[in-house]
Amino acid sequence: MADYDFDLITIGAGSGGVRASRIAAGHGAKVAVIEEDRPGGTCVLRGCVPKKLLVYGAAFSADLEDSIGFGWEEVDSAHNWGALIDRKNTELDRLAGIYTTLLANAGVTLIEGRGRITGPHSVEVAGKTYTAERILIAVGGWPSMPDVPGLREHAITSNEALNLTHRPDQVLIYGSGFIAVEFAGIFNGLGADTHLVYRADLPLRGFDIDLRKGFVDAAQNRGVTLHPGITIATVEAEGDQKKVTLSNGKVMVVDAVMAATGRKAMTDDLGLESVGITPDERGAITVNADSQTHVPSIYAIGDVTNRVNLTPVAIAEGHAFADSHYANAPRQVDHTNIASAVFSLPPIGTVGLTEDDAIKQGINHQIFQASFRAMKNTISGRDEKTVMKLVVDRDSNVVLGAHMLGPDAPEIIQGIAIAVKAGATKADFDATIGIHPTSAEEFVTMRTPRD
């Protein structure tokens, strides 16, 4: 066997890369991780963790409004944006420190700098070359922007939005995916006049149609101004503000423009051309079910592969890789029926097939659906509907998908996801006694199909 510096070099110390490296080291491998930023990656430093903390902060404004219906007296309140950002940053520092400690305790060597592949077994960092039997790419993704005049010069992305020193009074968010609607909830909930501009007729493409429609109603009810079927034509500076011209001719002057129009794998200047790996148009690396590229010694996991771009998926892929190669326990990650959430206000939880998926796949299916005001809203007076939906195979009675828009939807769907993953039938749901009074019990009390 060739004499390498390491058994494994991982490029990227995000959640997936750290998990793979720790587990591999625990199995006895000599491992190095290369990271140009702090350990933690997108999720911990620029994504789900800081974003969820801001969502928590934004949700209190609605709670204050709702409390009046329960007898609390109305009070004047103001939010301190800077204090929230400071507390968020303190928590991120703590988490980054934990990730660094986890690597050190596992015996993993942390190499700081930008890693660049120079061969099937070699990576260069700051002019020094390191070799390994295997290389694992776990560099994740980065916000991308469409080619709109002035957008790159004058817009921020989710990265910058998480670190603004002051909350903008008026903000225009361009996009309709989960990042766009989550930040719409954050800015709106914390008091900003928030506009969501998107080309489609409904936001959240790929999610179930009834949840998409329900979200539109809820977002407008909470004060977000929606601009469907619209694109941005130009963005210009106007003093300290931004002048935005929309495709319908309307001109808006706002304090900040946020582009949330997608993400691209961070494969630029990674040296992939040196080993003949060509990323796709989104920068993603093609791999097989074992996360292996067409170069036998090079693997990739997480968002850089653009399979299922979720942190727990990257972690699972990294763990499976480490077990397969360093514990003599080959296994692959099953990418079907993976639950996910949108931490919008109100939030969404979903697992399995949508109604459109079932139609496209030609499945003989039934829909069980409920739409209602949650008990809390009946007294608070909030005119907001919870939407719950099951997609069921009519022939086998197996529940193919479960979807929810409403308070605690992600927490509820996590439990439902176990049943869907296990192949539970509608009869199994029906035989389950609900917890009363909860919204979650609706999933086991829907008896009549919609059609």
Description:
The chain folds into three domains: 6-143 and 264-326, FAD/NAD(P)-binding domain (3-Layer(bba) Sandwich); 151-261, FAD/NAD(P)-binding domain (3-Layer(bba) Sandwich), CATH 3.50.50; 346-444, 2-Layer Sandwich (Enolase-like, domain 1), CATH 3.30.390.30. Helix content is 32%, strand content 24%. It has helices spanning 15-26, 41-46, 48-67, 81-105, 151-154, 158-161, 178-189, 209-221, 311-326, 355-360, 375-380, 409-421, 426-431, and strands at residues 6-11, 31-35, 109-112, 115-119, 122-125, 128-137, 141-143, 170-174, 193-197, 225-227, 232-238, 241-246, 251-254, 256-259, 263-265, 298-300, 340-342, 348-352, 365-373, 385-393, 399-405. The strands form five sheets. Strands 1, 2, 3, 4, 5, 6 and 16 form a seven-stranded mixed sheet that branches. It has a five-stranded antiparallel sheet with strand order 17-18-21-20-19, sandwiched between helices. It has a four-stranded parallel sheet with strand order 10-9-8-14. The model has no long low-confidence stretch (mean pLDDT 97).
Structural class: alpha/beta
- What sort of overall outline do the alpha carbons produce when their principal axes are compared? globular
Tally the structural domains: 3
Percent of sequence in beta strands? 15-25%
- Helix run count: 13
- Write the CATH architecture name of the largest domain: 3-Layer(bba) Sandwich
**Percentage of residues assigned to helices:** 25-40%
Q: How confident is the prediction overall: mean pLDDT?
A: 97
Number of strands: 21
CATH superfamily grouping of the largest domain: FAD/NAD(P)-binding domain
Radius of gyration: 24 Å
